[in-house]
Write a structure and sequence with these properties.
With 194 residues, the chain is α+β, with helices and mostly antiparallel strands. It is built from six helices and six strands. The mean pLDDT is 86.
Amino acid sequence: MATTDDETAELLNQLKRASGVNDEWLARWDYEAWRQWGRAMTADPDGPCPGAPDWMQSFIPHWHDVDFFCPLPCVGRVAYSEADWPALAVEHDDLTLSAELMGDTAPDVNAVSRAWAVARRNGGRPALTVSLLPAAPWGRAVTGAIEALYVTDVDEDQAGLITAILDRRPAAPLLVPPDGWATGPVHAWEWFIT
C-alpha cells in the first residue's frame, strides 16, 4: 500500500509529537525513506515487509515488531535473529549493515561481525536484533541497523573476548531470555536508540 505525500506528512507529524523530534532531525534521511516508513506502518503485518528485498522475507517473518515512533525511518525489525546477517550482507548488494546508525555509543559494524564470528566459532549461539531502514533503490534495498548482539552457550572467558572485540561492557546478563530464545544465560550487548 503506497502512502500519499499528505498521508506521509501526517504520519511524520504524529512521529514528531510522539518522539519530540523536529524537521531538522527528519531531514537526516531522504524523504523517500520516510515514505517507505509510512508504507510499512500502514501495511498488513502478516504480509511481506514493504521495502525489504524478496529474498529477505523468510528471515524476517515477524518484521512488524517495530516501534514506528522510534525516530528512525524503520520499515521492519527482527529480534534475536540467528541468521548470519554479516554473511547475508556480503552475499546481497541490497543489504548494508550498520551499527553506527544506532548512536554514538554503538560499536563499529566490523567489530560486531568479528564478535559474531568469534561467538559462533567457539560454540556459542549469537543472535542480532536488527532494524531495517529503507535505502536506494527505494523499495528494494535496506540498511540493517544492528541494535544489539546476544550470545548464549559461551563461558565467561568467551564473553570477555567478545566484550574486548566490541570495546564495550555487556549489559547485565538476561536471566529470562525473551520468547524462549535460549534456555541458559544470555550475554547481551545493546546499543539501540532509546
